[in-house]
Amino acid sequence: MDYQSKILSLDVLKTTLAEVASDRKRVVLCHGVFDLLHLGHIRYFDQARKFGDLLVVTVTADDFVDKGNHRPILPELLRAEALAALAIVDYVAINPAPSAADAIRMLRPAFYCKGGEFRQGELGAGLKAEIEAANHVGTEVEFTGDNLLSSSNLINKHLNVFSPATEAWLKDFRGRRSIEEVRAYIEGSSSLKTLVVGESIIDEYVFCDPLGKSTKDPVLASLYHSIEAYAGGSLAVANNLAGFCDQVDLLTLLGESDRREEFVRDGLRPNVHPHFVTQQGAPTIHKRRFVDNHTNARMFELYTMNDTPLVRENEAVLVEKLESIVDQYDLVVVADYGHGMLTPATIERLCGSARFLAVNTQANAGNRGFNTVSRYPRADYVCVTMHEIALETRMRHADWRDLVREVIQRVDCPRFTITTGKDGSLHYTPEDGFSQAPALATHVTDRVGAGDALLAVTSLLVVQNAPWDIIGFVGGLAGAQMVSQLGVRKTVTRDSITRSAASLMK
């Protein structure tokens, strides 16, 4: 058989295996990423094959490889072809899901085999789902011997996917920190009682095929293709936090007209509990981006909002709500997009009563640089971009250390994170001074939502007094995950960040 003909779709493979079952042949299923095929995988397949008559291997599709922005190294078709070239493998299929659970239910193998390294320790969500699916269809789950080799370890040691400076930082970090130490801070976030305060934003992407300039007018014409909408702004911050915390409360702003409350509620994770304040005479903030359907490049943006400050009655409702709940939380995260919700009276209440206050004031086209962090006289943690620091200080080209020192004179805050895009993040405390962490993204699709994810994740670690190198590392993983996709299609979770961290630390 031509080895490429071994690669089948799951639907075709289901039919093929049904025919095999009639001959009483026992099918063994193995599953994984197999990003760098090595001897450990071959031993795993050899041991798995002994349980039955045919060996089928499913490969995690590119979109579901959850090992960091830099993975997979090889695209799904090449990974499938490499497996199909092995004589011991009978069939290969690409699995469009994060685990093999659906494939097990679909293919109904006699045995599902995992490597021996999965036998010990707490089962991950993916393996739990796979075992549940196997029990449902009568598939036996078996574990092979220990695999002493790791694709992630080989990639980290021998394939330099990052810049030399980033590789050097990661090597030093691996020497000082363990995955158990990183995981402890990630797991420690679960019990934190957290409140998010900020504007709701509906992020909409209109996909178009550009046609060119109109023949009669100086207008760029495009052909509509499709549309997607995501829960953005403070909704995204809350969803990111809810991927780590057992419960997150959200105090947010919706419009009186075009309210979209049902969309907002549906877009929140189940463990996010929202409280809504209404802005009279205004719609819920809606940011529509027109993007090229082939490249995802943004062509134009359209804001629908009324960013005048809350009227007195609504402001009073917001302040009264804060007064009744704000001091109950371990962490209060303020996502201030400068669109009218966070008034001086509201900020005064937050700064005066929050036990631990984390603040981001975003500079965007809608607020035109008027929304700077010195609006908050006090915070426990500030997370902003270098551009936002420059706007605050009105110094575009000064040394970043001088910019931070200037901001410290304006905001009573002991902890700062400044993100610098492709250069990573900078951190400062009076006790520890300045430190840096590299960016961990190897490709960028869209930067929308990256800052919200980094704010959420780093706030959880800062409130636990985690070391700055761990904060920078985990924050970099969160940002890298977000920029690899369009908008906030998916937010970060405890499992996704832990897997990314484990992959880079092997």
Characterise this structure.
The chain is an alpha/beta fold and 506 residues long. It folds into two domains: 3-158, 3-Layer(aba) Sandwich (Rossmann fold); 184-201 and 233-285 and 306-505, UDP-N-acetylmuramoyl-L-alanine:D-glutamate ligase, CATH 3.40.1190. The chain contains 17 helices and 17 strands. Strands 6, 7, 8, 9, 10, 11, 12, 13, 14, 15, 16 and 17 form a twelve-stranded mixed sheet that branches. It has a five-stranded parallel sheet with strand order 3-2-1-4-5, sandwiched between helices. A hairpin with a 5-residue loop joins strand 10 and strand 11 (298-304). Helix 4 packs parallel to helix 5 (125-137) and helix 8 runs antiparallel to helix 17. The radius of gyration is 25 Å and the shape is globular.
